[in-house]
Write a structure and sequence with these properties.
CATH architecture of the largest domain: Alpha-Beta Barrel
Strand content: 15-25%
Largest sheet: 8 strands, parallel, barrel
Distance between the termini: 48 Å
Organism: Endomicrobium proavitum
Structural class: alpha/beta
Radius of gyration: 29 Å
CATH superfamily of the largest domain: Aldolase class I
CATH class of the largest domain: Alpha Beta
Number of strands: 18
CATH topology of the largest domain: TIM Barrel
Number of helices: 17
GO molecular function, one term: (R)-citramalate synthase activity
EC number: 2.3.3.21
Enzyme class: transferase
Family: Belongs to the alpha-IPM synthase/homocitrate synthase family.
Number of domains: 3
Length: 521
């Protein structure tokens, strides 16, 4: 098994993505998570470029990371000695033992971006690498725009690699900076470059502007690169960087390369969602390997097949990357979907019973009316219990009323009144809230809590509203989805009605009923 070093640049290149801004504390948290996962290198930022990165490197000295912490910078400026260049001196000051510096390998950039001569650019590369090596640093040289440079002037692109390697660069990274190359381009150029420099260790750094960053990275490894640079979830400038959450399992599971410790791979989904959480990004459910829907099955034929052999519709075992299989119940469901989901929820349905047909019939009717049970396990659970006539309600609604008042100061107050029958007693409660649904939720809890104290730790984590039939305009039915959580798990419930308050009541009451049933076990 050949080792492939994983160079994570989430904290530096990833932070350049639109809408992403890491605080120093965020960067420390992510660095710890990356270290625990076991990447080889963590690129922390560009010391000297901004106060945030300066502070990060100062704090990172105390972390005692097993991964190598890397400071990023550029080659020296034209006409300045490497020892006098402020960027390179900032790298030394940061206290890291590994530096990653970029330099131009495309002569067009040398002419128009740097506005210097081809010869001076090569000296900038060699002088900078040599200076950092004289300070006992490990040096990774990023040959920026290498593949575009190679296509336009092969000899000069290769000359930039030679300048870095002759000066002592430990690794030369071939950068696909514009992200427009296809895998065939990467394979051909990487193979020729590796052949031209058999003693040089190469890395790949790909961007995703053509949607090929993962494929391009894998192609480069197959042609001899021993390091992959990328980010968690592929975050980064424009269309993003190469997604390490796809590259690592592809190389390790499918190609028999070792990127991280085998046990660490099962933490990949957790790492992906942790970084999204810190970056304040909504996780992409369709992401390969780590997405919530990566192993979700909806078609009845598919579910029937995976119940017999998971390889029929799954390319790897979900648990190998820390993910899990999801069986989705919908109007497309067959017997296999319902039985599998019922088994997951411990409902005890058998595949050859009339009960299953009855549940399927109800689901199809409900979904035709606008319900959707893909993420509403709590409501599906209650629907099935009612279909099996094994549901005993914990309370019943007599009436509710919601009022919204706005005074002359612009202040808005929502108030709900609920009358419930609980264990043979009538409870009449009133509560206010930040909005009508929040007031209704508060009122329901207030009525129930003295009878069922276990709902005290239940809280609403998500609330979504969607119009089912927009053609009906303001009389359209709406679908309300609520996600609730307690100390141990989360569950979803759903309600549909032309009245958003009643749809919300359905979802709220289902959420509480589900919790109470589960608490009895």
């Amino acid at each position: 098994m050949k080792n492939i070093q994983i160079f994570d640049t989430t904290l530096r290149d990833g932070s350049q993505g639109a809408g992403i801004s890491f605080s120093v504390e965020d960067k420390i948290k992510i660095a710890k998570a990356l270290d625990a996962f076991g990447v080889s290198y963590i690129e922390g930022g560009w010391p000297g470029a901004n106060p945030k990165d300066e502070q990060f490197f100062a704090l990172a000295k105390r972390l005692r990371l097993s991964s190598k912490l890397v400071a990023f910078s550029s080659t020296r400026r034209k006409g300045v000695k490497a020892a006098d260049d402020s960027n390179l001196r900032a790298v030394i000051k940061s206290g890291v033992k590994t530096a990653c510096i970029f330099g131009k390998s495309w002569d067009m950039h040398v002419k128009y971006a740097l506005k210097t001569t081809s010869e001076e650019n090569l000296k900038m590369i060699s002088d900078s690498v040599a200076f950092l090596k004289s300070k006992k640093l490990e040096v990774i040289f990023d040959a920026e725009h290498f593949f575009d440079g190679y296509k336009n002037n092969k000899n000069y692109a290769l000359a930039s690699v030679k300048a870095a390697s002759d000066a002592g660069a430990d690794i030369v990274c071939l950068c696909e900076t514009n992200g427009g190359m296809l895998p065939s381009d990467i394979s051909k150029i990487t193979a020729q470059t590796v052949e031209a420099f058999p003693k040089v260790k190469f890395a790949i750094h790909a961007h995703n502007d053509s949607g090929c960053a993962v494929a391009n990275s894998i192609s480069a490894v197959e042609e001899g690169c021993v390091m992959v640079q990328g980010t968690i979830n592929g975050i980064g400038e424009r269309c993003g960087n190469a997604n390490l959450c796809s590259i690592i399992p592809a190389l390790q599971i499918k190609k028999d390369y070792k990127c991280v410790a085998p046990k660490a791979l099962s933490k990949l989904t957790e790492l992906s969602r942790y970084v999204d959480e810190i970056a304040n990004l909504i996780p992409d459910d369709t992401k390969p390997y780590v997405g919530r829907n990566a192993f979700a099955h909806k078609a009845g034929i598919h579910v029937s097949a995976i119940e017999k052999n998971s390889q029929t519709y799954e390319h790897i075992k979900p648990e190998s990357v820390g993910n899990e299989r999801r069986i989705i119940v919908s109007d497309m469901s067959g017997k296999s979907n319902v039985v599998s989901k019922a088994g997951e929820l411990a409902l005890g349905l058998k595949g050859d019973g009339e009960d299953v047909k009855q549940v399927i019939k109800i689901i199809k009717e409900k979904e035709n009316a606008g319900y959707q049970y893909e993420d509403a396990d709590g409501s599906f659970f209650l629907l099935t219990k009612k279909a099996l006539e094994s549901f005993k309600p914990f309370f019943s609604l007599k009436s509710y009323r919601v009022a919204v008042e706005k005074d002359e100061t612009g202040a808005i107050v929502s108030e709900a009144t609920v009358k419930l029958n609980i264990k043979g007693k009538e409870e009449h409660t009133v509560a206010e809230g930040d909005g009508p649904v929040n007031a209704l939720d508060n009122c329901l809890r207030k009525a129930l809590i003295k009878y069922y104290p276990q709902i005290k730790n239940v809280f609403l984590t998500d609330f979504k509203v969607r119009v089912v039939d927009s053609k009906a305009n303001t009389a359209a039915r709406v679908r309300v989805f609520i996600e609730s959580s307690d100390a141990s798990k989360s569950w979803g419930t759903i309600g549909v009605n032309e009245n958003i308050i009643d749809a919300s009541w359905q979802a709220l009451s289902d959420a509480v009923e589900y919790k109470l049933i589960k608490s009895k076990k």
